[in-house]
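Request: Mind sharing a record?
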Amino acid sequence: MGTFGSYTGKMDISDDKKKAFTSHLQKLLFYGGMMQFDKVCIFGKKIMLMKPVEPDQDGSLYFHYNYFEDDAWESAGYKRDDAYFFSGKIGGNEFCDVVTAVHFLYEVYDENMGAAEINGEIVNDPGYLGWINHILGTDFSMKKRFRLWELFENHCLERQEQGEEDAASSFQVWDALPHFLYQAAGGTEFSDICYVTRGTGTLCREELVPGSYPEAVYQCKESLQQYFASNGTEKEIQNIWELVKSETNIREKMKEQGISPVAQISLKMPARVLVYLTCEIKKLDFWAEWKELCQDVYQDECMPEYASHGLAAKRKKAIEEPVGEISTAEFLYNDGPFLFWNTPEELKGKPNYYLSDDDRAFWWDGSQEVVLSEEMEQWLRELSQRHQKLMAETSPDIAQKEGFLEKMVSLLAEIEDYYQRVFCFQNMFYEFLQHGTDRRYLAAVRLLEELAEENREQAKVIQRVGSWDIANRNATHNPGRITMKRYLSVMANQTLREKYFGF
C-alpha cells in the first residue's frame, strides 16, 4: 500500500515543445525542493552533500528526496528523449505535491487528453496550476478539463482494460472539476455522460424543450427505434456501426432500408450518441462496443449551438480564465490531519511548524520569489555581527595547522548524526573547501559549530523520532533543527550570504 501519483494520458509531448517542457519541468523540481545527493567519505567520516536535481549526460533527471519534507521516497525521474516522467510511492506531503504538479504540467502540454491522479482519483485542485503559473510566468487555465467526453472516455476504457465491470460508475464529473467551475460544466458532453451512465429513460416528449439537446437525443432515439422495428435483420446493428464510421458525403446519400432518417440526424449529432442509444435499445454493453468503434467513428458532425450566446460566452470566460498565481510557500503549506498528531510533551502549546519563505533561503535571489521575514533578517544581522567578531579572532595560519577540511567534515558529520537529515549543500562544501585559509570561511564554520552546540537542547526531541514519514512534524521540524537548516541554506546561497556576511 501507499500513495501513488499518475497521469492518465500518454505523456505525448510534441517535438517542438519538448525543450520548453523539459525546462519547465526542471524548474518545478528546483523550486519544489527536489534534491539529489553526493556522498563524501573522508577522514573516516561519511557525509551526504545535497544539490538540486540536475540532468545527467543524457539530459535525464533522477531524484528521491524533498528538502522541505526532509524525507525520501521511491525513485522518480524524467527521461528527456521521450519526455517520460515516472515515480513510485510519493507520500502525502511536499514530495507528493511537486510530483502532482508535474502531472498537471503534462496535462496542459499534452495535446491529447490526460489528467493528474493520486491513487487513481483525479485531482481537481486548481492550486497546482496556480503554482505552475507563478513559477513559470504562464497563464494556464483548467479549460482542458472541459473536454469532458474525452476525460470520461479515457477513464472508462482504461478501467475496462483493467477488468473493472462497471467503469462508468467510478467516474464523477464533479470530481474532475474545481468547485468554482461547476456552473460552467453544462453542455452536450455533460449530457452525454449522464445518458451513458443513467440511460435516457427519463426523456419524455411532453417535457422536452423545443430546440434543446435532450429533444435532439430523443428524436435520434425515436428514429433508431423505428429503424430497428422496420428492419428485423441480423445486419441492422452492423448497419448502424457502418454508418458511424462513414464520412459526411456517404451519410448524406444513405437511403436504403429506412436508415435515411438516422443518417440525416447523424450529420448534426456525435457518433457516440447513435452508439449509446443503439446499445440502450438493443441491450448491448456500450463500452464493449465503443472500444471497437471509437477509433474509427466520424468526427465531422455539424452540431447546432444549443446554449444561448450569452450563456456560451459566460461559460467560455469562466473556463478559459487563467488560474490565479499561488506562491511556493503557500503551495507547499501543509496542514494534513496527521502531521501534528501525538505532539511530544515538551512541544505542546507551542506553535505548529509551517513552511515559510524563511525556510527557502537557498532560493532567495532578491526577487519576490522569496521574501524573508523581519525576524529572519534580524537573525541574519545578528549572525553577521557574530561572524565579524569570529573573523577578528581567527588566524588562518593556526586554522590551517588544525586541519580545516577535517574539522569541517567532522562537524558536518556530527550535525547529520545529531540533528538528523540536516545536510550541507554540495556547492557550499566545495566552495568552502577551496578557501580553507580565508578568515571569512573559517569564521563561518566556527559559527556553524557554535550554532550546533547552542541548538542541541531545542533539537533533542529529534532523538526520539522513529519512522520519519509518520512522525509529528513539530518534532521533525523542531526550532533547533530548523535553525541549523536555515544557516546552512544561507551559507550555500552566495547572493544572500554576500548581502549579510560580505563574502
